[in-house]
Amino acid sequence: MDDSEDDWLSLKPQEPLPSQCCGSGCIPCIYDVYQKELEQWEEAKAKQDRSLLTRKKPKVDQLTEDTYQYKFELPGNSSLGLSLGQHIVLRGLVNGLEIQRAYTPITPVNAEGYFDVLIKCYEGGLMSQYVKSWKQGESVFWRGPFGGFPYRPNQS
Predict the structure, then answer these.
(1) What is the mean pLDDT of each run of 10 residues along the chain (156 residues)?
(2) Strand 59-62 and strand 67-73: pairing?
(3) Fewer CB within a 10 Å sphere, N or C end of the chain?
(4) Cα–Cα distance measured from residue 135 to residue 132, given in angstroms and rounded to the nearest whole number
(5) 60, 37, 45, 33: which is closest to 116 by C-alpha?
(6) Which helix (H) or strand (E) holds 38?
(7) CA distances from 118 to 8, 63, 81, 150 (A)
(8) Comparing C-alpha atoms, which of 23, 12, 28, 20 is closest to residue 149?
C-alpha cells in the first residue's frame, strides 16, 4: 500500500452509529474511543507512519481443530493497558461488509510488546473467514479497550 490519499482515507476510523452506543455511560464510551482513534489516525497521517495504526500478526498456533492462538506485536515495549473485565474489538472487511467482534486478550495485563488472543473459527462465520484470510505479517486493525465494568477485588 502506498501513501496516496485514498489509502489513508481507507484507514480512517469510522464514526460509530448511534445504535453502537449502549447509552449506559460506560468509560470509555465508543465515541471517546472513536475520538482517540481519529486523533491517532491524524497523527499517523501527518507523520506518514502507519505503524501507529496497525498491529501485525506475526505468529499463530493451532490449539485444536478449530481454535487458534494469535500473537500480535505492539509498538516498542508498549502494553494494551487493559484491566480485567475489558476487551478489544477486531475490525475487518469480508465481501465488502465491515465486521467486528470483541475479544478478551489472554495475555497477562503487564505483558509488554505483544498480546495474545484465542480465536475459535466457525465454518461459514464471517469473522472466521476474515481471520483465515490473514497472511503472515499482515496488518490487522483492533479498537479498544472497551468495558465499563473493570474487576475490583474484594468489592461487590
Answers:
(1) 68 76 72 81 78 62 93 79 81 83 88 90 92 77 75 71
(2) antiparallel
(3) C
(4) 8
(5) 60
(6) helix 30-47
(7) 30, 9, 18, 20
(8) 28
Hey, what's the cell of 94? 469480508
Burial class of residue 94, CB neighbours in 10 A (0-12, 13-18, 19+) = middle
Report the distance separating Cα 129 and Cα 23, nearest Å.
31
- Determine the Cα–Cα distance for residues 114 and 63; give it in Å rounded to an integer: 19
- Are 3 and 50 within 8 A, CB to CB? no
Q: Cell 476487551 identifies what position?
A: 87
pTM of the model: 0.62
Burial class (CB in 10 A: 0-12, 13-18, 19+), 142: buried
DSSP string covering 87-155: EEEEEEEETTEEEEEEE---S-TT--SEEEEEEE--TT-HHHHHHHT--TT-EEEEEEEE-S----TT-
What are the residues facing 94 on neighbouring strands? 97
Element of type H or E holding 11? helix 5-11
pLDDT score at 1: 44
